[in-house]
Every structure is written in C-alpha cells, then in structure tokens.
Design a protein that fits this description.
The protein is mainly alpha-helical. The chain is about 75% helix and about 0% strand. It is rod-shaped and about 105 Å long.
Length: about 100
C-alpha cells in the first residue's frame, strides 16, 4: 500500500524530473534552433533593407546627375537653410 508520504515524494520527484528533462530539451534542441532561425530572419531583413537603400541611392544618383551645377548648389544650400547667393556665379558657367 502506498502511503501519503510516498505519494507526495513520488509526485514532487516526478515534477522535478519532468522539469529537468524539459530544461535539457530546451537547452540542447529548441534554443539553438530558435537562435539559428532568428539569425536567419535578421539576415534576411537586413538584406532587404540594404537592397532598398541601394535602389534609393541609385535613384538619387540618377537625379543628381541630371542637375546643373547651379541647381546642385541651390539644392545643397537650401537643404542646409543657407542663402543661395553664392550659387549665382555658377549660373550660366556651363554654357560658355
């Protein structure tokens, strides 16, 4: 016959054993797989962001190559909230 004490000791022992087994499974199998999956997702997201930035940069380069020296000067100075008076000397400089 099983006494209450033996049942309690068996139940607690079983819980501790189950906890140890699940922790071992997490440490050896689940966590490394999740870490690798997370790393793969991060690399994929970074690659997409890099490609998007490259395409935007190519579009900006194409736009900048079509601007005259005067327009480039004006865009740069206006972007920095500076007066565009120094750009006046570039007006018509490429037409000579």
């Amino acid at each position: 016959m099983i006494t209450k004490t033996a049942a309690i000791i068996g139940g607690v022992g079983g819980l501790i054993l189950a906890f140890v087994i699940f922790q071992l499974a997490n440490t050896l199998w689940l966590l490394p797989a999740a870490r690798n999956e997370g790393r793969d997702i991060y690399i994929a997201v970074q690659a997409v962001a890099d490609r998007k930035a490259e395409l935007e940069r190519k579009g900006d380069d194409a736009t900048l190559q079509t601007l005259t020296d005067y327009d480039l000067c004006v865009a740069g100075l206006r972007g920095n909230r500076m007066p565009i008076d120094p750009c006046d000397q570039l007006r018509g400089a490429g037409e000579e």
